[in-house]
Amino acid sequence: MRPGSLVVSPDGKHVYVAAYDRYRGGVAIFDRSAGGALTQKRGRAGCVSEATGLRRVCGRARGVRSPSDLVVSPDGRNVYVSASGAIAVLDRDATSGALTQRGGRTGCVSRPGRSGACVRGRGLKNPQAISVSPDGTSVYVMSFTDSALAIFDRDPRSGTLKQKRGRAGCVADELSDTKGCRTVALEIGPDDALTVSGDGKHVFAALTIFDRNPNGELDPGPPDMVVEEVLSVIVSADGKNAYAAASFDGLLIFDRDRDTGALTLKPGDEGCFVARRITGCKRATALAAPTGVSLSRDGRDLYVASGSNQGNALVIFDRDPSDGTLTQKPRLAGCVSQSGTRGRCAKGRGLREASKTGEATPAAPLVNPTLGVTVSPDDRSVYLAGDTVAVFDRR
Predict the structure, then answer these.
(1) How far is CA 243 from CA 155, 206, 253, in A?
(2) How high is the pLDDT of residue 366?
(3) Quick one: CA torsion of 358, 361, 365, 367, rounded to 10 degrees?
(4) What integer pLDDT is reported at residue 115 of this predicted model?
(5) pLDDT of res. 2
(6) Three-class secondary structure of residue 138 per DSSP
(7) HSE-up of 312 (CA within 13 Å, CB side)?
(8) How far is residue 385's CA from residue 363's CA, in Å, rounded to a whole number?
(9) How far apart, in whole angstroms, are the C-alpha atoms of residue 70 and residue 27?
(10) Is 335 helix (H, G, I), strand (E, B) or coil?
């Protein structure tokens, strides 16, 4: 879920947002009302950060500098953050939603070079995406710089992470400089997504598929598809389909083999949606550059974030549960955009990605460069996250 990294706790009470900013970044913490409204916690409880400029206003945590992604464990007890060279392990208070980091080296995992503040790990140079298995026993972390996928066992009682020993602890591309990993064909882009299927059988590194063993180890799966940028991937709860936000390649729709995990692009023009006219794809209003995708829990609605200085929109599709095909909702019900898209979309507020790109400076902080979308566990709310968080009621 890397673009616009926002997660809702399994109990629906709290929301956590990763703010990618070298100088003032960290994790923002919000209370969520029964109606879906968000209120940032007051004082230092409202955020955790490693930035020196936020010491007085945020709680302190190691390994959260320039966070790129975060995830909540299925039991709601922990939040894991992938950041610059480290994975932060944070305990979550189920009542208040507050985040605290346990003392000692077990509070984070990092590549060598962090002065012994964290447990050492492999394949963690600038980790970009993180995912946890549905059973809560495994955590996976992907690094573009290392061209590697790190594999951790999670202790359900303490939430601590332990990288699997030897070659079982990571898989890396044949050209990677990472040592001690199993070598596989693994092409990772700088913004590619990582997800575990709901049945726990497969791990998707963009569209590279791994078979997941009961102990969390990974084996190469079916052949992957060559798509340059896959910013978000989601597998439907029924396991029959996968949907990928592939930036300028559009929204891709796949049939999924529930046993092997293999993906097959739907035939004809059912396999992709784009905003512009491209032979073999259907057109969708405001779908200029999809960067995030999320499904309602009932599997009937698909929400797509379109950002990257393009549509700045939330695009809404009806999903046919019988075969997974998509149809954009009619007229203004089919999209909400910052500009209204010349009257073709409903007009919204705060639907924009970061206004600045590149390396941050103290005077010009960098936040999330793309938009992401998340549906709350109770199916009542949809959140669009970029340099703001837009809150929608789902009807």
Answers:
(1) 31, 11, 5
(2) 33
(3) 40
(4) 55
(5) 53
(6) strand
(7) 21
(8) 22
(9) 9
(10) strand
CB 364 within 8 A of CB 355: no
Burial of 277 (0-12, 13-18, 19+ CB in 10 A): exposed
**Domain ranges (residues) in the chain:** 227-348
C-alpha span between 389 and 121 (Å, rounded): 33
In the block, tokens 């996976």 appear at: 140
Q: Determine the residue type at 367.
A: V
Which position has the token pair 């180890």?
A: 217
Q: What integer pLDDT is reported at residue 93 of this predicted model?
A: 96
Quickly list DSSP for 254-280.
EEE-TTT--EEEPSGGGGEEESS--TT
Separation between Cα atoms, residue 144 and residue 292, nearest integer Å: 19
Q: Which residue, 144, 121, 141, is CA-closest to 131?
A: 141
**What pLDDT digit, counting tens, does each position of 182-202 carry?**
999 888 888 889 999 999 999
* pLDDT per position as a tens digit, 55-79: 788 999 998 988 889 999 999 999 9
Identify the pLDDT of residue 4: 58
Specify burial of residue 189 (Cβ count, 10 A radius: 0-12, 13-18, 19+).
middle
Going by the DSSP 8-state scheme, the letter that residue 217 receives in this structure is: -
Which pLDDT score, from 0 to 100, does residue 103 have?
85
2 residue type, one letter: R
Helix (H) / strand (E) element for 226: namely none
CA 181 to chain centre: 24
**And the tokens for 178?**
């990472």
The two three-digit tokens of residue 27, written as one number: 């994790």
Q: What are the residue ranges in the chain where pLDDT is below 50?
A: 1, 310, 354-369
Amino acid at 14: H
Please provide the size of the chain in residues.
395
> Around 82, how many Cα atoms within 13 Å sit in the side-chain half-sphere?
30
Distance CA 123, CA 390 (A): 34
pLDDT in the model for residue 8: 97
- From the centroid of its chain, how far is CA 305? 12
The verdict on pTM exceeding 0.85 is yes
According to DSSP H, which parts of 288-391 are helical?
Answer: none
Which residue matches tokens 């993180």? 130
CATH superfamily of 227-348: YVTN repeat-like/Quinoprotein amine dehydrogenase (2.130.10.10)
